[in-house]
UniProtKB/TrEMBL annotation, chains A, B:
Classification via PANTHER family: D-LACTATE DEHYDROGENASE, D-LACTATE DEHYDROGENASE, MITOCHONDRIAL-RELATED
EC number: 1.1.2.4
Signal peptide: none
Coiled coil start-end: none
Domain (FAD-binding PCMH-type): residue spans on this chain: 47-224
Gene3D superfamilies linked to this entry: 3.30.465.10, 3.30.70.2740, Vanillyl-alcohol Oxidase, Chain A, domain 4
KW Oxidoreductase (keyword) present: yes
Main EC class the enzyme belongs to: oxidoreductase
Protein name, UniProt field: D-lactate dehydrogenase (cytochrome)
Species classification: Bacteria, Pseudomonadati, Pseudomonadota, Betaproteobacteria, Burkholderiales
Length: 470, 470
């Protein structure tokens, strides 16, 4: 939305490096502007020049080769998956090579009897679920976008099913990755638990491409539930919907998904998906289990919803009806962008302890209403996590300023309430100041020390998570 | 059992350090032999001279003071909790100060409505559960011993409830700890999930005291289940019991606990607890949920057990009856030690993918039987984890050699089957070679690099997890 930031002016890429990459990869090493731009832009609000080259790796040895060559020439490497990150993770703020691993999308091995699968990093969540459904299994983590599993691990993604199944933190059993020396490192195993040494798996999960390039992931799987039932319910206010969600969680109902859409989000998906939903705050819920347990959960939730004025409780038990509802939920972001043509968005991602969720949302809504910026809310409210997205006219810098100010207020509030600045999107470029506010200089200094120890040249995705120097 | 190992001969403790500690702590800094020996011996098989001093800290500032003083004099610091670790974690292999945090056992804050609690590291799991039960909540991680929460985090402990509730890895939301500079570091928050930077929380969980001294933990809690039911069932063979457990897990039954005791373990607990149980392989199971869901789970499991020749299925629904059974399970280790007076034990801790558990156990049993050493088995078989403990006569070094050989064979087999050398006890002194076998030199080199970056003087619990130099 703005002119390229002059801070992002990398040195030219060494000719010897480009020659080595071209010799090995041929047409799979590209410097074409269109290819570079496609790898240098994401859903974030930043304008940064694209990477200087894009390499399409097809196997782990090729990843290692790229890293070794880049290390020899001190040129950055930015792992690239589906490009669906929201915080500027894939932007080449110091130039370098975008290392595209989308072609590494094989299912390496499926162990249905152990509920584990090993995959390459470029496989997307939909591809994975398609490949395993014949075994009656599924991988629950669903950030909305059809993200790559490598990228989901790198940002510690979660999404709609996290309330029951956890996030990528809980569902990655082990990894293979290429470290800054260009060596392949293995972590974890297929065992369900382990106390064997430092938890390098979880150090890589959420490291946003700054510690290594993930080349293989071993994941937990779950049996497809015997019964699945989805329901929607409309509320007189956002507060009433949130109070219902809070009580559902506090009563220990093992709900699988518990999503909030505000009236603005519903208006957008109605336009986009022709759903004809009531334009009022809505909870979209899903229950997994045996027939008996699903019925039990649903009865409890319906009663709680009624107590908060919930109306028009409507069930979707057929897969088609459920798919239609969840598709609408997943389209909310792009549907909303289309309500203000040409707009870009700043999306917040605070997550608070569940008892603080109503306060966290209600004040944020009041502030957004007072500011007069177009916005919408979708929330994984069962986790205490919601996204308030401001829709900005790129021609009006004052709108961005307002949105940034509101976002700062919201984060400061979430931290006061015992929460985090980012439930699932990561730090990237946008939240580096918030990270210091949240965890303190001492913790960030330890992160920097880990980075310096494992990537002394600052090769991997530089400029993300924290400034390399304090 | 042997003469002290001459490798463990630390330099004398600097008089200035001892003076500074004595000035600050008075009688809470002790060099009395009895106190030092009590802090220098655990359940492991190693004989190491005790630490040179023991400090009883009462708050975080005191912990920081000890670390700062120790750092200034380059003297090791070994955090000490309940002393129940099994792998030599608390042994002063390079001398130094045992930093006892047992007096830091306060419940700092309870947030029942968020299912979180913040505690000091010295609180034990029984103390914690006693302190929160009035709210209808519990903390499920149960390693058997009444361990301290700080120690449980440091070894990434798990135990009987992990099959349903996960391990310390999944149940620590955040930490405070004193780093090697003597600064207090905060990680995590009370939010259920976060993507804010590197996962320092999980880097500390399982670091065995080598990266910092934990001074506060924020934990997940769970509502006490509406219904709890425990059952025992006897099988014609260990294999039949294990096949049952495997099918229970593979069918996705949300069983809370699924423990195996072999005939040797039952013989020991019969002697110790006068239980009169049949001396045959037994599964001890527990189901949590609503009345309906517990009945459903139990029916499924009883049917599976019958198919494998399970007999004498017996229910314990009253708290008293359940407590009696679980006490027996928790006494198995010490009961078995008493069957061979004066013996010490080597306890294995492999964990494999569930489908490989029968192979893993059956071959290990055959090898132990062939070797003729007394042994017993208890297993968290729902997780693929079991402990085969050899009971050794300290006067017969050949018994230790045999046990070590069998243990090595068992670990090598577990690794071939996709498992780990330690499901929950940690690496400590005993399994450092196994760690390299399991994860490879590259991963261990990364662990060493992290250690060197965060504790450049090698101050915290030196000589554990891996040799500091390759």
């Amino acid at each position: 939305m703005n002119a390229p930031d002059p801070r992002f002016a990398p040195p030219a890429m060494p000719a010897a490096l480009l020659a080595a990459l071209t010799e090995r990869f041929g047409a799979r090493c590209s410097t074409a502007l269109a290819v570079r731009e496609q790898h240098g832009r994401d859903e974030s609000i930043f304008d940064v020049p694209p990477p200087q080259a894009v390499v399409f790796a097809e196997n782990e040895a090729e990843v290692a080769f790229v890293v070794q060559q880049a290390a020899a020439h001190q040129v950055p490497v930015i792992p690239f998956g589906a490009g669906s990150s929201l915080e500027g993770h894939l932007l080449a703020v110091r130039g370098g090579i975008s290392l595209d691993v989308n072609r590494m999308n094989a299912l390496v091995s499926l162990n249905a009897e152990d509920l584990t699968v090993t995959v390459q990093p470029g496989i997307t969540r939909k591809q994975l679920n398609e490949a395993i459904k014949h075994e009656g299994l599924f991988f629950p983590i669903d950030p909305g976008a059809d993200a790559s599993l490598g990228g989901m691990a790198a940002t510690r993604a979660s999404g709609t099913n996290a309330v029951r199944y956890g996030t990528m933190r809980e569902n990655v059993l082990g990894l293979r990755f290429v470290n800054a020396r260009g060596e392949v490192v293995r972590t974890g195993s297929r065992a369900k638990k382990s106390s064997a040494g430092y938890d390098l798996t979880r150090l890589l999960v959420g490291s946003e491409g700054t510690l290594g390039v993930i080349t293989e992931l071993t994941l937990k799987l779950y049996p497809l539930p015997q019964a699945v039932s989805a329901a929607i319910c409309f509320f007189p206010s956002i507060d009433a919907a949130v109070q219902t969600a809070m009580q559902v969680i506090q009563m220990g109902v093992p709900i699988a998904r518990c999503e909030l859409l505000d009236a603005n989000a519903i208006r957008a998906v109605n336009l986009h998906d022709k759903l004809g939903l009531r334009e009022a705050p809505m909870l979209l819920m899903e229950f997994h289990g045996t027939e008996g347990s699903v019925a039990e959960q649903a009865a409890t939730v319906q009663e709680l919803a009624s107590e908060h004025g919930g109306e028009a409780f409507e069930w979707a038990t057929t897969p088609e009806a459920r798919t239609r509802l969840w598709a609408a939920r997943h389209h909310a972001y792009f549907s909303a962008l289309q309500t203000r043509p040409g707009c870009r968005s700043i999306t917040t991602d605070t997550c608070v302890p569940i008892s603080r969720l109503a306060e966290s949302i209600n004040v944020s809504v009041a502030e957004a209403d007072a500011a007069g910026l177009p916005y919408f809310i979708v929330g994984h409210v069962g986790d205490g996590n919601f996204h308030l997205a401001y829709l900005l006219d790129p021609a009006k810098p004052e709108e961005r300023e307002t949105a940034e100010r509101l976002s700062q207020q919201m984060v400061a509030r979430a931290l006061r309430l015992g929460g985090t600045c980012t439930g699932e999107h990561g730090i990237g470029l946008h939240k580096q100041g918030f990270l210091v506010d949240e965890t303190g200089e001492e913790a960030v200094a330890m992160m920097r020390a880990v980075k310096a120890a494992l990537d002394p040249q600052g090769l991997f995705n530089p400029g993300k998570v924290f400034a390399t120097q304090p």
